[in-house]
Design brief:
Elements: H1 3-6, E1 25-27, E2 37-40, H2 53-58, E3 63-66, E4 77-79
Parallel strand pairs: 1-2, 2-3, 3-4
């Protein structure tokens, strides 16, 4: 599936800026990321997924979703107010 198609019905302010990268799966645990996956970085009670973005990219993440303002990643990054929202 194309990354931009995952956000068609999602409340995202600028859907036109989402690239057409191919996504083969979705993971919230950087250790579970395989090549082509979308990594969703979420803040939990004791762990912040944003701290594992580099691991997810090293494992082959095609793109990352998170809530922090980030730049300079080697893959597309989509900032959402609440990555947990469906």
């Amino acid at each position: 599936m194309l990354l931009k198609n995952l956000f068609v019905d999602f409340p995202y302010s600028e859907p036109m800026n989402i690239p057409a990268a191919e996504v083969t799966g979705i993971a919230i645990d950087s250790r579970a990321v395989k090549p082509g996956y979308l990594f969703v970085a979420m803040q939990g009670g004791s762990v912040d997924g944003h701290d594992y973005i580099s691991t997810a990219i090293a494992n082959g993440a095609a793109a990352v979703v998170g809530s922090r303002e980030l730049s300079g990643l080697s893959v597309p990054y989509i900032q959402l107010e609440n990555p947990r929202q469906r």
